[in-house]
Write a structure and sequence with these properties.
With about 170 residues, this protein is mainly β. Helix content is about 0%, strand content about 50%. This is Cilia- and flagella-associated protein 43.
């Protein structure tokens, strides 16, 4: 008996809850979330490529594009687990890194951004309804090197934590 594996040919839908939820990769390709998938839509040829993390996540919560390194990142809210960031090459749709941390209690990532030189990835992590962290990673090593705890009542007050890079 042959086992048949289904593969999505077209994906319809749009997730509006995520931050940075639509990005241009080049002049003809845009990226947007649909459920737990990241869709790369080529508007010139009317074709789609689908990137799925392959996990049991609930939805994509944030997205970012790094044109210099030709990668994209998306954060996924996983069921009863820590939130995860996936970094993919958008030319080949292959996974570069899976980024997560368990030491700091963040329930989801609400925003992602790459630095202008492409080395760093910043994420805003939601701790509770009005409490946030800002995380800084060297994304190609999936290494958290710094994070900030943000006081929601006074954004001038913040606690800065540096993580030892040599651990």
């Amino acid at each position: 008996m042959a086992i048949v594996k289904a593969k999505a040919f077209y994906n319809f839908g749009f997730s509006q809850i995520s931050s940075g939820n639509i990005n241009f990769i080049d002049d003809v390709t845009m990226m947007f979330p649909s459920g737990t998938c990241c869709i790369l839509l080529n508007m010139e040829y009317n074709t789609q490529r689908t990137i799925n993390s392959g996990t049991d996540g609930n939805s994509i919560t944030a997205m970012a594009v790094n044109l210099k390194k030709r990668v994209l990142a998306f954060a996924e809210l996983k069921k009863d687990q820590v939130p995860v960031i996936f970094v993919y090459d958008f030319d080949t749709c292959t996974q570069h890194k899976v980024i997560f941390q368990t030491a700091i209690d963040a329930s989801s990532y609400t925003s992602l951004a790459f630095s202008s030189n492409g080395k760093y990835l910043a994420a805003v992590g939601l701790k509770s309804q009005n409490e946030y962290y800002i995380f800084m990673w060297l994304w190609d090593r999936a290494h958290l090197f710094e994070y900030y705890e943000i006081d929601p009542d006074d954004l001038q007050k913040r606690k800065n934590y540096t993580v030892d890079l040599h651990k």
